[in-house]
Amino acid sequence: ATFKIGYFVGSLATGSINRILSKALIKLAPDTLEFTEIPIKDLPLYSWDYDADYPPQGRALKQAIEASDGILFVSPEYNRSIPGALKNAIDWGSRPWGQNSFARKPTGIIGASPGGIGTAVMQSSMRSVLSFLDAPQLNAPEAYITFKPDVFGDDGEVRNESTAEFLRHYMEEYAGFVERVLAASAPGHI
Ligand code: FNR
Q1: What residues does the NADPH-dependent FMN reductase-like domain cover (predicted)?
Q2: Ligand 1: does its nearest atom lie under 6 Å from the Cβ of 158?
């Protein structure tokens, strides 16, 4: 079976190291995963005023989440938390009330930082948010990536074999997790 994975890059920066990480993950992932980015940069700031009539960007975001078998968050840590642009996108996806698009979607969280903490605090915040949104999460392995510019090419090439193996293993485990969650929720469909 193949699985459609919608992925979020939590950074809007043109030179984002997390965008580079997302490219590396796509290259190293099993062939059974098909990736589509869910863009966040053109979303207005969410307000529940929009719940009565979502704008096209909000509708497109919810449709993209709902069309995905699994969701992958590749995000930096900003000020020890979730980047505002990504939290805004999650807020959009979670509403209108009762129409939370993340419910029961298998999710993975990974991120890169130049520092040694490797986005661990952001990931912990994300786990609280995704738990509240009833989104199952890959618990292990965890992946806190310290970004070394000599290891990652701009196109997502990974020049260090142990890093490549770690990321490959992460994506294999993520693929297995998505498959298990879907099999449990819709037996017979895969
Ligand atoms: C950062 N950075 C950062 N790094 C980290 O490990 N923990 C943190 O809490 C923060 N906080 C933070 C806040 C803000 C506003 C910025 C701009 C940066 C550094 C950050 O990891 C670095 O800029 C990365 O390049 C960000 O990832 P992207 O945006 O390049 O994908």
Answers
A1: 4-147
A2: no
